[in-house]
Amino acid sequence: MPGESSFAPEPGDSVFFEADSLCLIDQTALPTETVVLHLKTPEETACAIRRLAVRGAMAIAVAGAYGVLLGALAEAGGDAASMKNAARDSIRVIGASRPTARNLFWALERMGDALEEGDDDPSLLLERLRERADEIALETIEKNRLLVGAGQEVVSEKASVLTHCNSGALAALRYGSALGVIIEAHRKGKDVHVYVDETRPLLQGSRLTAWELDREGVPFTLIPDNAAGFVMKQGLVDLVITGADRIASNGDTANKIGTYSLAVLSRAHGIPFYIAAPGSTVDWDAAGAADIVIEERGPEELITCGDKVVAPEGTSVYNPAFDITTADYIEGIITEKGVLRRPYGESLKALLE
Ligand code: MRU
Predict the structure, then answer these.
(1) Pairing mode, if any, of strands 21-25 and 36-39?
(2) How far is the CA of 99 from the centre of ligand 1 (A)?
(3) Burial class (CB in 10 A: 0-12, 13-18, 19+), 235
């Protein structure tokens, strides 16, 4: 494999590339086991994304980028044309894995651009793809580092924060996004307590967010999703922060199913509701909610719980993986360029500069 990686993995990184393999912490095995998967093909990459072995908008973007590199590597030794075809096929296969997170397509488009830029020498082409994938990983990490710093302005010295799904290092590489803001507040010595929504049906809150907070020593309490309103009513929540999978150019935001309910509940209880996401989450071609495709997942996620069947055979199921919170419910969008405020049509443009 030509070219040295400029993305040097650190212990605990959820996605990295090593010795011609895409390495992922298998997020389906947590919190009981830490298993690292070693993937060799774009098909395996797409499958890992689809079954949520790697999940979270930014983690799947970085995994997707290296998955394209795997496709080109399979043609190493051949000519540039076959390598490019393999990379283009990989972009198609990985792009068909999950539709909602903008970051995945941001990364795949950049890998596609790298195919067309510069020399057609096969080893230079491979080097370019490797460099581009590393760049995507490093940029993701750096933007999140800035974002978690910028988010400190919304977290007071003493704060009780509610969050949903998982938006920490597992989902967003090293610093995380929404959960990263909360963990950074704790590291800075703020007196932070977190209410963690368990996040049905796949339990990213209890399996992953609770695991990350526990390792960081951040005090937290796990709640069923449907307790959020009651917990707010009891005055136990000062603010809500969640991540985002796609933000339309007017600020309408797709995130894990249940986020919209939290935003409405926050409004009803006078609690500020924030989104945290870097610029790579913004879909400039989406004018608003209607332009965002929401992934629907299979019925088995609802009719079974672990190995147990929990609904009658033949039950009709609707299982959207994400929902959309319209911009008017969002108090601020925490980004690498600071906390953006309404109207988002205007303020989001700061991310383009
Ligand atoms: O289905 P998932 O677990 O991939 O959903 C992830 C989320 O909804 C996160 O909140 C989102 O990706 C933001 S964190 C990078």
Answers:
(1) antiparallel
(2) 12
(3) exposed
Which residue carries 């390495």 as its tokens?
Answer: 23
Ligand 1 atom closest to residue 295's alpha carbon, by position in its atom list: 1
pLDDT tens for the chain, residues 1 to 353: 544 558 999 999 999 999 899 999 999 999 999 999 999 999 999 999 999 999 999 999 999 999 999 999 999 989 999 999 999 999 999 999 999 999 999 999 999 999 999 788 999 999 999 999 999 999 999 999 999 999 999 999 999 999 999 999 999 999 999 999 999 999 999 999 999 999 999 999 999 999 999 999 999 999 999 999 999 999 999 999 999 999 999 999 999 999 999 999 999 999 999 999 999 999 999 999 999 999 999 999 999 998 899 999 999 999 999 999 999 999 999 999 999 999 999 999 988 87
98 CA distance to ligand 1 middle (Å): 12
* Beta-sheet strand order (sheet of 21-25): 15-18, 21-25, 36-39
Q: Is 234 exposed, middle or buried (0-12, 13-18, 19+ CB in 10 A)?
A: exposed
- Positive or negative, the CA dihedral 215, 65, 351, 327 is negative
Q: Which amino acid is at 281?
A: T
- Count other Cβ atoms within 10 Å, centred on residue 260: 19
| 243 contact partners, CB below 8 Å, separation of at least 6 | 56, 57, 165, 167, 171, 172, 177, 178, 179, 255, 256, 275, 276, 277
> How many Cα atoms occupy the beta-carbon half-sphere of 77 within 13 Å?
2
> Residue 73 and residue 34: Cα distance in Å, rounded?
28
Structure tokens at 280: 């790579």
Q: 0.70 cut: is pTM over it?
A: yes
Task: Enumerate domains of the chain plus CATH numbers.
Answer: 15-146 (1.20.120.420), 149-352 (3.40.50.10470)
Confirm or reject: Cβ of 56 under 6 Å from ligand 1.
yes
Q: Is 95 in the pocket of ligand 1 (CB under 6 A)?
A: no
Distance from residue 135's CA to the centre of ligand 1 (Å): 22
Name the nearest CA neighbour of 263 among 284, 282, 237, 285: 237
